[in-house]
Amino acid sequence: GVLHEDLRLLLDTALPPKRKKVVLGVGDAKMGAAVLEELGVQCQTGGVVAELMRGIRLHFPALVRGLTAQSAAKAQLGLGHSYSRAKVKFNVHRVDNMIIQSISLLDQLDKDINTFSMRVREWYGYHFPELIKIVPENSMYCRVAKFIGNRRELSEESLEGLEEIVMDSAKAQAILEASRSSMGMDISPLDLINIESFSRRVISLSDYRKGLQEYLRSKMSQVAPSLSALIGEVVGARLISHAGSLTNLAKYPASTVQILGAEKALFRYRRRGRGDGGRGPRLKNKGRISRYLANKCTIASRIDCFSEVPTSVFGDKLREQVEERLAFYETGEPPRKNLEVMKEAVVEANEVVAEVKRRQEKKEKKRKKREKRRLEALAAAAEEPEENSVMETEENDVGAKKKKKKKKQQQPEESEAEPEPEENGVEEEEEEEEEPLPKKKRKVVVEPEEEEEEEKKKKKK
Prior knowledge:
mainly alpha, Helix Hairpins, two-stranded parallel ribbon
């Protein structure tokens, strides 16, 4: 219902001053209502206006100077992309698509690592079958198999390395004793190389799975911190993956969330029959606990989805409520009221949000300072060549002035040096002055001889 500033400016400049008699034709009823609310101009929507708008859209490149059909199509495509991008996600740091892909990859890695580890157990079990009972864990078994290699080469020196892998000195001693009296077959070096290579691949996959789990935890703490604090990162990610997105999970009622991740348990309960369920003192309140937990999960997902600054305060308070309800079913101790808990959560959440905003403002100020320094550095770098050129011209001028001064200083020195030879020796100057005179005489003598020779030649001709 808020009119855009550009559209408001356009209407203010295009409309006449007397707007009471003006009726605008608008193709969209919502836009007409917004214009009427903001500017007080009556807008008309209907069949004639819609046909006019279709015609304007069809012939828009011909009506606007400098606009072609190709550029209009590009503008429409860019507008559609930006609108779709804004509709899909508003904040880059709160993208739940990465959570869905991460939990799917995590499940796939669990299956693959389990399959590959069983293959390593079967393959290396021909050589050392007693190791399977001593080391039941898959990833640890692959590490031990890679470390041992040929069991006949295992000795007391390698006991420390085994203890580092299995984290138990008794278990490492048991592996050493079992290797000495094992009933396994001998193995060739080529087969051992292949087993070690395959074990190394399985170990790398298990290490990558740990890194992926940490990545999932960090993403869940950014996207859905309350849901993660309530039921854990992995279970919360599975709920988001089942729902398709955090928004869809927030739209679900508590009854749907209750059965969202319990399809297998529900079908197993149906296969066993109703007579097996609900036995024992702890299982008699299983339905109440599941409904209560589903209700709190729905509240946590809605808080995470629609809050501006996501925090884990509400998730912690909801978890405390679930634990108090469990204690109530077991011991009969009455839990706190929901209103009191939510008031405490709101106060703590406001404090946390204020602290987060304060940190964001500090980061923004630091970023602006860095940007300002960078711009100043660029401006200074741009001014340096100009200053260098000015300095060069100034240096050239100074150098020219210095040269002129030197010349002027040399000229008086020469003038001062000229009278010394007059005083010291006048004969040398006279000799120097007498030398060019014979040359002039020769020239004068030579010229009439040449003329007489030329005249004689003419006479002969």
